[in-house]
Amino acid sequence: MSLLSWLLPRKKPVLSPEQQQHLLQLPPASGLSDTTLRKQRWVVVDLETSGLNLNRDQVLSIGAVVIEDGAIDLGQAFERTFLRPDAPLNPSVLLHGLGPAAIAAGSDPADALLDFMAFVGDSPLLAFHAPFDQHMLTRALKESLGYRLQHPFLDVAALAPMLCPQVNWRDAGLDQWINHFSLQIEDRHNASADALATAELALILFSRARAQGIDSPQTLQQRLNQWQRRKQVHSF
């Protein structure tokens, strides 16, 4: 990205009257509550992108499932591929089954993102390696809708080693944790399947959290912040 592109003001997205109305109807985000982990509605999200560059690459698809009442609610699921016919496709995108035909047949990004945020409502979000998904989703929402994402995002990739300190892994991936807990995942490597796998892992971690006296989303985030600060201190 050139210096000039940073200095020039970004164009405000042009939305149809229907899209503007949909945007105005989105509920505001709620902070993490002091209710129990079981009572909290969580949206578990996974993004497929055109690459890993946080500033240049684009979101190609979103998959999400809901954890509610202590279980995955398969009746609440979201999957959408974006219309991005000119997006550069790297080999990992093709691995996920998002070839040119699937992307060319996708939804308008603004419509897809509006539908996704309506699906999320005011719920907090969970993802594996959440900082990447959070950054990419935040950027996509700003560029397509002029919308500022303020929903809490918890990182399952960080929760797992915090709550399972006996597992001495460094930067373990989702597949390693799936194998560690012997989860039976029939499909992988598309957004919806990865969101479901992350949700199954999250339920195990919530059980571990409760066993350690952590039984609210607010407390879970506080413990995670403390754990990450200690890690940073010990890394110096």
TrEMBL record:
It comes from Pseudomonas deceptionensis. The keyword Glycoprotein does not apply. Transmembrane segments: none annotated. This is DNA polymerase-3 subunit epsilon. Residues 41-211 form the Exonuclease domain. InterPro entries: Ribonucl_H, RNaseH-like_sf, RNaseH_sf. One of its GO terms (biological process) is DNA metabolic process. The keyword Transferase does not apply. It comes from the Bacteria. One of its GO terms (molecular function) is 3'-5' exonuclease activity. Keywords: Exonuclease, Hydrolase, Nuclease.
